[in-house]
Amino acid sequence: MEAAEYAAKIEELLEESPIAAPSVAVDVRDLLAAGEFALAFDTMCSWIYEDELSISEEYYERLVRLSEDLGSRDLITRMRELVTG
What is the pLDDT, as a whole number, of residue 69? Predict the structure, then answer.
């Protein structure tokens, strides 16, 4: 996957995420701008998990697919408990 594709996919997930804190979104976008895609993805997922924010099954599956490239598989596995609906 190309860098622009990673950035677009993470940005899309961020936009659709349950994260409400603008500072977190800024941090993730700063990491994307620096080309730190894996760190941006991990940061976003960590905030969702640590704040115990509910996510949909479809959103979770998108995280799983992206984690296959970017890592954070253990974190994504733990995030399964946040799926609702």
Answer: 93
